[in-house]
TrEMBL record:
It comes from Rhizobium mesosinicum. Coiled coil: none annotated. It comes from the Bacteria. Keywords: Hydrolase. This is Alpha/beta hydrolase.
Length: 398
């Protein structure tokens, strides 16, 4: 599915964020008007136009707030947060770019203002993690304190905390579930503020989130469900192999081997050079190909930045640990494995996960017939949530 852009990656990112309209995180007119001014594949132009849109929307939120129009203010703060996050998205080719931090903080601040205006059902939390904390939001069905089944949700390769409400918090609350969202190493503020890169052993990240959730009287600890999005399809599967307090897991979408998936995203001769031990040639091949491919340029710059490495060879080497080969059979609880028919990142990976699972399992394929063929069903959140939460409802009842 492509809207405005012909470029695969720009089109995907626009549709991804357009999908947030369903829960109030963006608007069609603002988004299309902004995207229409952006040159295909131009990262700087992308930043300029989304930053302008974010500041324009934020200023309107502030005016509404100053005049006591709190519903309008809250809605505009949410949209401004999305647009600041979009502006920052392609900046990671220069890890020292000060705009990474300034735009991220602007997105966080706008979202916090919206959360404050929402009231006590949106709670900012800090999850104890090693020698620091991880930022999160706990979204409650209501403020009664009643213990409820709870979704524990995290993103993947490029996600940030402020977008996770639209993927999980909103549909969970509508259906009577609480939802704990958080950013781990390599994601959101932990990467930008604390310089914590990704780690493959994600159970070390998820178990502290479960421990925190179980301290809350409004969490039904016997009914916890884990959902991981995008690369989180690997991260959540890895966590589920070691963390057995979940009644169910959703791999959104399934990822079996990240290194294997990079074979399809990077030039074949670069992979061959890497596997032959020629890191310098691998780097040169990738750098030569990046200007003509937005997707490749983004995957590489995002990978080097979020994995905390300096070269393509280092990124590839670290990615090898992100696989389920030796641990997938340790997963015990029921799993929903999702697949997008036109996934540009993890083609074939969900089926591999499904085939290797030995726990109770369900496979859900999403196609262009429903406009749900994009990676992580971007742009089709209503249908995606119907499938996911109907499965969760039935699994917990059984």
């Amino acid at each position: 599915m492509k809207v405005v852009f012909k470029d695969d990656h720009f089109a995907f990112e626009l549709v991804r964020n357009l999908g947030f309209m369903y829960y109030g995180g963006s608007d069609l007119g603002e988004s299309v008007a902004t995207a229409s001014k952006i040159k295909e594949g131009d990262f700087e132009n992308w930043f300029d136009e989304w930053d302008k849109r974010a500041r324009r929307t934020l200023s309107r939120a502030e005016v509404s707030f100053s005049k006591g129009h709190l519903v309008s203010a809250r809605e505009a703060y949410l949209r401004a947060s999305t647009y600041f996050r979009m502006a920052e998205f392609y900046l990671h080719g220069n890890p020292d770019d000060p705009r990474i931090l300034s735009e991220s903080r602007a997105s966080q601040a706008a979202y916090k203002k919206a959360a404050d205006l929402t009231g006590p059902t949106w709670e900012r939390v800090e999850i104890p993690y090693e020698n620091t904390t991880l930022p999160g939001y706990f979204y409650k069905v209501d403020d009664s304190g009643k213990p409820r089944p709870t979704i524990i949700y995290h993103g993947g390769f490029d996600s940030s905390l402020e977008e996770l409400f639209y993927y999980a918090g909103a549909p969970a609350n509508r259906r009577g579930y609480n939802c704990l969202t958080f950013d781990g190493p390599g994601q959101g503020a932990p990467m930008r503020e604390q310089k914590l890169p990704f780690r493959y052993d994600w159970e070390k990240v998820v178990t502290p989130a479960v421990d925190y959730a179980l301290t809350r009287p409004d969490v039904d600890g016997a009914n916890l469900v884990q959902i991981g999005m995008s690369l989180g399809g690997y991260l959540s599967a890895r966590a589920a192999a070691f963390e057995h307090r979940f009644r169910a897991n959703v791999f959104f979408d399934g990822v079996y081997d990240f290194y294997e998936s990079l074979h399809k995203m990077l030039p074949a001769d670069a992979i061959a050079a890497f596997e032959a031990g020629d890191a310098e040639r691998c780097q040169k091949i990738v750098e030569a190909a990046m200007p003509s491919s937005t997707s490749l340029r983004w995957v590489v710059t995002q990978g080097l930045w979020s994995f905390g490495v300096k070269s393509v060879a280092e990124f590839l080497e670290k990615s090898k640990a992100f696989n389920m080969r030796d641990v997938i059979k340790q997963i015990r609880s029921p799993c929903l494995v999702m697949e997008a028919a036109a996934d540009i990142f993890f083609e074939g990976q969900p089926r591999h996960v499904y085939n290797e699972l030995t726990s109770p399992k369900t496979f859900a394929e999403f196609t262009a017939e429903d406009g749900a063929e994009n990676h992580c069903q971007s742009g089709a959140l209503a249908f995606k949530d119907q499938v996911v939460f109907d499965w969760i409802d039935e699994t917990l009842k059984s």
